[in-house]
Write a structure and sequence with these properties.
This protein is an alpha/beta fold. Helices cover about 20% and strands about 25% of the residues. The chain is built from six helices and 14 strands. The strands form three sheets. The chain has a six-stranded mixed sheet with strand order 3-2-1-12-13-14. A six-stranded mixed sheet has the order 4-5-8-9-11-10, covered by helices on one side. The chain has a two-stranded antiparallel sheet with strand order 6-7. The relative contact order is 0.15.
């Protein structure tokens, strides 16, 4: 090789080496970079003041954000300017006012028919929880899967989002649906129950649509789910007997009969449930630990009624793209649990309260009630 050719190649090779080195030291900012999920401190636990507050958000029906119009709102709410962003503002407003320890999104989080990309819609819908670093759980309704992701894909995606404690299903078990899981709330630091769950939360997939004898109906909770629920409850009650809540989207048929009882709140539309009664109420009654069930689905109902000693409470419609009623404000439900103050530290759960917050001018707090109180021994 001639010396003149070498003299030409050396600068070229040096230039290539420097270019490669600069790429390594200063990678393309637009290139995909792996990121780790930002997770809340686990296990979830009661605060130092002995309280734990859950915010229920039912039926956001989120679409594409600013481009998705509101439904059934009064002109003063914003008229043509009203959009999914009203839902986002309401969620931020509630988080700032109540400072919840957990947010439970109870289905129809997105409205599939209006969401061009399910993942993008979910990221926008849940963003205030992530922004405020609030742990959150989610279950599916009957509309979530109508966009670009299946029910399984939706639950996997939500379980991987920042600050989510949602789960796809119990590990190692074959359970119908997606989004059946348990979350335990442990005692506060410094108490004797720091490693013990003092409040159990059961999340269930109530399905979407099914056909029974050639007739369309809503989904229902299946026997495999109830078997898992019974076994989980039995295991969790071996030592203590902590109270529990259950969250699912579609109400059970017995909720219809609450019309004839002394319910608290508004019962403004027929209960849209399955024609199949799979024995959910009997299962919950036999378990003995569930004190309240929190539902979505029927946006104009926000009442609590008692069946067999268990309260069944609607969240009321939260989202502005969901159907509603003009001059009937969107609303959220708060569930507030308090521990008993012992001589030296916090003890077991003493009481469970609930109320609703309206997205009106006064941010009204309504229908406060006691759902359960521990009997004195």
């Amino acid at each position: 090789m001639s010396s003149s050719l070498v003299s030409l190649l050396v600068p070229c090779l040096l230039s290539l080496l420097l270019l490669r080195l600069s790429t390594l030291l200063d990678p393309d900012p637009s290139a995909a970079v792996p990121r780790v999920k930002r997770a809340p401190s686990l296990p979830l636990r009661f605060r130092h003041d002995g309280a734990f507050k859950i915010l229920q958000v039912a039926d956001m029906h989120f679409g594409n954000g600013a481009a998705t119009r509101c439904r059934d709102v009064a002109p003063e709410v914003g008229g043509a300017r009203c959009s999914d962003l009203n839902t986002t503002r309401f969620l931020r407003r509630v988080i700032e006012a109540e400072r919840p320890d957990l947010i439970a999104f109870t289905g129809d989080n997105i409205f599939g028919g209006s969401a061009s990309d399910a993942a993008e819609s979910l990221l926008k819908a849940i963003s205030p929880a992530i922004e405020y670093k609030v742990p959150w759980t989610a279950i599916l309704g009957n509309h979530d899967q109508e966009s670009t992701m299946t029910r399984e894909e939706l639950m996997v995606f939500m379980s991987l989002m920042d600050y989510s404690v949602s789960q796809v299903n119990p590990p190692g078990l074959l359970v119908h649906g997606f989004g059946n899981y348990h979350v335990g709330i442990h005692g506060p630091f410094g108490s004797e129950f720091v490693n013990t769950s003092l409040l159990n939360l059961y999340f269930l997939d109530s399905g979407d649509r099914e056909v029974v004898n050639g007739v369309k109906t809503y989904g229902w909770i299946k026997e495999s789910q109830l078997a898992w629920l019974r076994a989980t409850s039995l295991e969790l009650q071996q030592n203590l007997h902590p109270p529990a809540f259950s969250f699912f989207h579609i109400p059970i048929p017995e909720v219809r009969g609450l019309w004839y009882t002394d319910f608290k709140g508004q019962y403004q539309e027929g209960v849209a449930c399955s024609t199949v009664n799979s024995g959910v109420l009997d299962t919950l009654t036999s378990m003995g630990d569930v004190k309240a069930v929190f539902l979505g689905h029927d946006h104009l109902n926000d009442f609590c009624g008692n069946l067999n000693g268990i309260w069944f409470c609607y969240g009321g419609g939260f989202g502005y793209h969901a159907y509603g009623r003009p001059h009937w404000p969107r609303r959220a439900r708060v569930i507030y649990t308090e521990l008993k103050k012992g001589y030296k530290s916090w003890e077991e759960v003493e009481s469970i309260h609930t109320w609703k917050l309206l997205d009106d001018e006064f941010f009204s707090k309504i229908d406060e009630q006691v759902l359960w109180r521990r009997r004195s021994r």
